[in-house]
Amino acid sequence: MRPLQSKINPNSQSFKDNYAEMSKLVEKLEKNLEKSRFQGKEKYLERARQRGKLLARERLELVLDKDSPFLELLPLAGMERKGGFGAGGTNVSGIGLVAGKLCMVNSNVGTRKGGSIDYATNFKALRINEICLENKLPCINLVESGGANLPDQAKIFNYGGEAFRQITRRSKAGLTTISVVFGNATAGGAYVPGMSDFSIFQKQAAKVFLAGPPLVKMATNEIATDEELGGAEMHSRVSGVSDYLAEDELDGIRLAREIMGFIATSRPHFIPQEPIENPLHSADEILGVVTHNIKTPFDIRELILRVVDGSRFSEFKPEFGNTLVTGWAKIHGYPVGIIANNGVIFSESANKGAQFIQLSNKNNVPLIFMHNTTGYMVGKKYEEGGIIKNGAKLINAVSNSNVPHLTLMVGSSYGAGNYGMNGRSYRPRFLFAYPNSKVGVMGSEQLAGVMEIIQKEAAKKTGKEYNEQQAEMMKQMLIADAESKSSSWYSTSELWDDGLLDPRETRNYLGFSLAVVYNQEIKGTEGYGVWRM
Hints:
Layout: H1 13-36, H2 42-50, H3 56-63, E1 70-72, E2 91-98, E3 101-108, H4 119-134, E4 139-145, H5 153-172, E5 177-186, H6 191-195, E6 198-202, E7 207-209, H7 213-220, H8 226-230, H9 232-239, E8 244-246, H10 249-262, H11 286-289, H12 300-304, E9 314-316, E10 324-331, E11 334-341, H13 347-362, E12 367-373, H14 380-384, H15 387-400, E13 405-414, H16 415-420, E14 430-433, E15 438-440, H17 444-462, H18 468-485, H19 488-493, H20 506-517
Parallel strand pairs: 3-4, 4-5, 5-6, 5-7, 6-8, 11-12, 12-13, 13-14, 13-15
Antiparallel strand pairs: 1-2, 2-3, 9-10, 10-11
């Protein structure tokens, strides 16, 4: 397999200018990620320390193996939601190694809003549970939560129940959930340890009950203390809700690691052999390669050769349907098929992509989709040429493919192009995005232009005068709104991706994700339903 040759000149002015602009986006990303690490006001952190408590990220670090990598997921969820708890909500979640086994770890931020669950935190938990089930991962919950945030209860009540359902479904599938309770686990939060396979309660700290003393008093007129209703000792010796009584936080974490050491988990289906080749070009150059302005095209091969092992890429059908690049490579030693946009999707590109997905399924190879497209080509010539049926073939192949899919947004991802390239609604195992990326029905200017045409024709049909000045003002407002809601910041806030990443970290994110998907047997499909020919 030959290495790809770069045609980029890092000393050119265009490269330097683009590098500078992408660096600004990365800097903004780092600032937002720093906000997501906020664990509460200093007075709450100090109160926790005085009580001998560890903070959420300290607990997480202790439960992971020493020097374990950690793939944090959805760190900016809820970032732009008004009335929410801010970036990341009240839960830190990600995948790392515990007792040498890949494991999902969730750590409640008890010092931030008491660890209560707002809208974004709830949906983050649902996505985390989905990742666990799809990738056959055990899960450790580090619990300290006040339950649902009451002002949000109408929005999250029904969805909150789904989280408990998913715990039991994973248990049925043989995927262990361990919960360590360090403080409050109130109301619905009590069902997290209650439905886990293993529950560990910290002595004189865990308080697990469906209703606290005030609600019990109001509902039954019974007077009871926190300890009587839900203390760790009571649950360990009387109710049996707790399986282990931990002396302190460190003992609780020790017990969780001990349990993870003996439970049955998936054995890696494939482990790459050493040595692993690094790309021939520096990852730092990606900031100069991938254009900050998505209207400016770039050759997607220049990104691929800076991500794959040895910059080696076996391209499939290189002379046909050239606005879609397809081929095989390895990343950190893991075999993978890559489907990447080089612009708008024509019929030839769609057919080529569908065939490549068939071949990857036949050979049991996972797929990476790299998005940078305005969608399928439109116009009389292309409609007559069957762009709908050919585009449908690609969507059919994506929908029915059984090999794991990873998706990476590196530029624009508009319209049905998002669907054909395995966007969020097509349920990739993991979906990451660059801070320059945009997702939507169409570009903001195109959207505003279409609406302008529709409004002019409507005015003409009804015989009304078309106010050009007012229309222009409305057009600019529409452009601004569409631009905002297609941005990567909005998308990640709405959980349309699993995290924004510094483009220079692409190889590490994809490599770790491939280690997760290769942890179980990969088996493709041979059935795709009906295709129009």
